[in-house]
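Thread: quick sanity check before group meeting

JM: Hey all, I'm pulling together slides for Thursday and realized we never actually wrote out the predicted structure for the chain we discussed last week. Dropping the sequence here so it's in one place. If anyone has concerns about the input, flag it before I start.
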Amino acid sequence: MSQPTLSLEEQPAPPRAESPTGLFLQPWQKGLLLIAVLGILYLRIWRRKQARIQVCSHCGKKNPPHQSNCQKCAAPLMGVER
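JM (edit): ok, ran it. Output follows.
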């Protein structure tokens, strides 16, 4: 009993994956894009947080944005932001 021999030419080719947009990104390109997006988001959050910290004009203590009086000396915070 002889075994039938199959060659690569006789086997059907696997279907090729097609992108609907025609854009293909390599794994390293996806990683760089993810790092860039996360970096931009982090910088936006950091800048927004830094811009709203209120500094007391009397003692110089940094206070959260929701405070109307200084936590250390109870002086009114007159919209002095840093």
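AS: nice. Strands lie at 54-55, 62-63. The first strand starts at residue 54 and ends at 55.
JM: adding both to the slides.
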